[in-house]
Amino acid sequence: MSQRSTNLVEPHIPAPRRGEVTAWRVLVVENNAAEAEALVRALKRHGHEVDSVTSGGAALQSYADADLVLIDLELPDLDGLEVCRGIRSTCDVPVIAVTARGSELDRVLGLQAGADDYLVKPYGFRELMARMEAVMRRVRTPEPAERVVSHGPLRIDAGSREVTLHGRPVDVTRKEFDLLYMLASNPDTVIPRKRLIHQIWGDSWSRRTVDTHVSSLRNKLGGSGWIVTVRGVGFRFGGEGG
């Protein structure tokens, strides 16, 4: 695709072989239909699962299940910086700003708003992929020593990062998996909220971070008993729905 029709410069890059690349769930927030189409096509060709939205409001409704967000700061309803702040106020999903705003001040404001990286249009797809991989390396959680944790009908596989309940897959986000695995690996221990925040979210957190993820996990597991709140302390794993 020519650079005149889109800001994505996409040279011919052979699609990776199966197993050569880690697949991520990527949310593309882009108002320009041609640019969004080119980016989505390129990412899917490289094995990623991609959703695309065209507005800031839609982005704030869609980012929770993404492993990484690519956002244009020029959106029709909300300023992209506000969207970045909104995402960062509730979770630490990696965000890369992909925008035509190229001044030093724009870059500083983007990073201060919560973007993990900043890429100015036009850009090459190879550079975008390299930046995505670098960001994901920084946030990747070390692989646990015990690869599979099972409690009754619940099975948590750290190798494949998959959760199943009664043999059926449970679709969880990256941080939801980390939280559930940590609690389930210590079933008889009340884990303080501060420890959960430090080990799973690092410095990127808000007061609602843990509560939001716990609530989401309870809904996905079909009951509040799986994760028990210990008031004033933290949480513990309930086991088989409590």
Automatic annotation (TrEMBL):
GO terms for cellular component: cytosol; protein-DNA complex. Residues 146-239 bind DNA. This is Sensory transduction protein RegX3. Residues 146-239 form the OmpR/PhoB-type domain. Pfam families: Response_reg, Trans_reg_C. InterPro entries: CheY-like_superfamily, OmpR/PhoB-type_DNA-bd, Sig_transdc_resp-reg_receiver, WalR-like, WH-like_DNA-bd_sf. Residues 25-136 form the Response regulatory domain. Transmembrane segments: none annotated. It comes from Streptomyces chartreusis. GO terms for biological process: regulation of DNA-templated transcription. The keyword Zinc does not apply. The modification 4-aspartylphosphate is found at residue 72. GO terms for molecular function: phosphorelay response regulator activity; transcription cis-regulatory region binding.
